[in-house]
Design a protein that fits this description.
With 435 residues, this protein is α/β, with parallel strands linked by helices. Helices cover 42% and strands 9% of the residues. It has an eight-stranded mixed beta sheet with strand order 3-4-2-5-1-6-7-8, with helices on both faces. It starts with 36 loop residues before the first helix and ends with a helix.
């Protein structure tokens, strides 16, 4: 056939079957004359070239013909092979056209990580799996046992103290009776917040004159609120910094908070506008401001503190001369700020031989509408009358101050936390503490 190469008629290999000049094949056994070999070789080369061209043309013709299962046009689809049924893709008909109203094909996804799987929380949770809470104290901690009920309650109070607030908050410490422990309560409460929260707390002695906070706290310098007011223009400037304010404060290293002392000499009386300017400066840099007050409920700075307070803490001793003035103060505030009474905590600050059982029983019954009473035990370090260092307090004293800070924080969450979950948790803690 024309598709197979011929075995005769090549110029390089003369055939044994020569041709005569008239194109007749010689007889078998007949040898062609020698002079005819040149003509026969030339004619054979011509025939081989013509046969090659014919073979190439036949192959091209066969390639242009339709193969079984394929159409003539190059855009026609491939026919299904025997034994297989070709189904159209979703959203397309049998001819490969998109069907109207059918499901849309999925959009092509970019190369890289799928957005559904790109979640940092998944990796963080995997790297930090939840572990069983173990005791961190004593023999239970060394043996790897679970914490005791007391330790669990303490952890819950620490979590409450760390409650995030959406704005700065102000805690007022007040009782018109002197010597009931207002300043020690203010310092220890500020320390309880500062230690657990890691700072962001300032205790301010808002006494009219010669408050004892500089004497009961670490005070390397004696700059007071009056010195701060003299620099109000610099502190209120837009380019002022915390270091400008800290120049007038004393840092309490053991409690991780700052203090601002009251005036120690007679002269300018702190007015309502003075209080507001100082309060504005402190709340610019501190999350919690604890305001220690004096004994005059009619003074403008005392009234300004009452109107700025988010929570009221009333220290008292279980003695008649301490309890009655506190009750009269609350009676006055009932007319001035009745909503503040709903956010009040009563603290019993009894020194040696200060507690009277009958007064304690009557006072607890009278304060039943407030539902928040914390007993601070007698502590020799506080009774000394000197500088109070939080780390030198007895463990029981620090535990009760943590409990006080937890209750105050839960009250503050009701007015300074927007997250409903935080408010619900705080309300549950207050309900549990009052039950």
């Amino acid at each position: 056939s024309a598709s197979q190469p011929t075995s005769y008629g090549s110029a390089s290999q003369p055939t044994s079957y020569g041709r005569s000049d008239q194109g007749q094949a010689p007889q078998p056994g007949h040898q062609a004359p020698a002079h005819q070999f040149g003509q026969q070789a030339a004619r054979g080369a011509y025939l081989d070239a013509a046969a090659a061209e014919a073979a190439i043309g036949q192959v091209a013709d066969q390639g242009s013909q339709a193969q079984p299962g394929y159409g003539q046009h190059p855009q026609q689809t491939q026919q299904p092979q025997p034994g297989y049924d070709q189904q159209p893709q979703p959203g397309y008909d049998q001819q490969g056209q998109q069907a109207p109203g059918g499901p849309q094909p999925a959009a092509p996804q970019p190369l890289g990580i799928s957005p559904q799987s790109y979640s940092a929380n998944v990796l963080i949770n995997h790297l930090n799996p939840q572990t069983v809470d173990k005791s961190r104290r004593g023999l239970r901690g060394r043996l790897g046992l679970s914490p005791s009920a007391k330790e669990v309650a303490e952890h819950a109070d620490e979590a409450a103290v760390r409650t995030p607030f959406d704005r700065p908050v102000t805690i007022m410490i007040a009782n018109p009776k002197g010597g009931v422990g207002k300043t020690p309560t203010a310092l220890m409460l500020a320390a309880a917040f500062g230690v657990v929260r890691g700072g962001g707390v300032c205790a301010w002695d808002n006494n009219e004159l010669r408050g004892t906070m500089p004497d009961r706290s670490l005070s390397p310098h004696r700059r007071t609120v009056r010195d701060l007011l003299s620099a109000r223009d610099t502190l209120q400037a837009g380019n002022s910094q915390f270091t400008d304010l800290a120049y007038f404060l004393n840092h309490q290293t053991s409690g991780k908070f700052h203090t601002l002392g009251s005036a120690q000499t007679s002269g300018h009386v702190i007015s309502k506008s003075d209080f507001e300017e100082i309060h504005d400066l402190l709340t610019r840099y501190f999350q919690i401001v604890v305001v220690d007050t004096g004994n005059n409920e009619a003074s403008p700075n005392w009234l300004a503190a009452a109107h700025s307070a988010d929570c009221l803490v009333v220290p008292t001793k279980w003695r008649k001369d301490s309890l009655v003035p506190a009750v009269r103060m609350l009676e006055t505030l009932q007319q001035e700020r009745p909503e503040l009474l709903k956010r009040t905590v009563v603290v019993a600050t009894n020194g040696p031989m200060d507690s009277q059982d009958d007064v304690r029983k009557s006072g607890a019954q009278w304060f039943g509408g407030i539902d928040h009473i914390v007993e601070i035990p007698t502590d020799p370090h506080v009774a000394e009358g000197g500088v109070i260092e939080y780390t030198k307090l007895r463990p029981r004293t620090r535990r009760e101050m943590l409990r006080l800070a937890s209750q105050v924080s839960s009250i503050l969450a009701s007015v300074a936390a927007k997250d409903p979950r935080v408010q619900e948790a705080a309300a549950a803690r207050l309900q549990q503490s009052s039950s």
